[in-house]
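A.,

Following up on our hallway conversation. Structure tokens first:
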């Protein structure tokens, strides 16, 4: 069978979240680690989530599955949904100038 499961190449956010603790404990397989890192490269939300988990580990010294409280996951998934809603939710936004925030200044002030 020459069926290629391209879907397996890219992680969705929920899968990435599931892998965060394994990633931080360095228990991911090489392939999973690569996919996880490639997802992070294109997903600021998961990057932020990973950063939060690192802080948690710094504070607690370790992390267990119990530390991943359902609330944390729900908050993250809510964030993820809103992020995608702004991308795909153009049906309800009829005005082209309905953007809630201005364009970021393209000039980098970091001099
Ligand atoms: Zn993500």
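Then the amino acids I'd put at each of the 111 positions:
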């Amino acid at each position: 069978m020459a069926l290629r499961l391209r879907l397996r190449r890219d992680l969705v956010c929920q899968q990435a979240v599931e892998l965060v603790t394994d990633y931080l404990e360095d228990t991911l397989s090489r392939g999973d680690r690569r996919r996880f890192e490639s997802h992070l490269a294109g997903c600021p939300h998961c990057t932020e989530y990973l950063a939060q988990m690192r802080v948690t580990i710094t504070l607690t010294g370790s992390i267990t599955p119990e530390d991943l409280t359902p609330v944390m996951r729900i908050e993250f998934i809510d964030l993820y949904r809103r992020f995608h809603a702004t991308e795909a939710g153009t049906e309800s936004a009829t005005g082209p100038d309905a953007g809630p925030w201005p364009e970021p200044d393209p000039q980098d002030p970091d001099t």
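The domain at 8-87 is CATH 1.10.10 (Arc Repressor Mutant, subunit A). Curious whether your intuition agrees with the design.

B.
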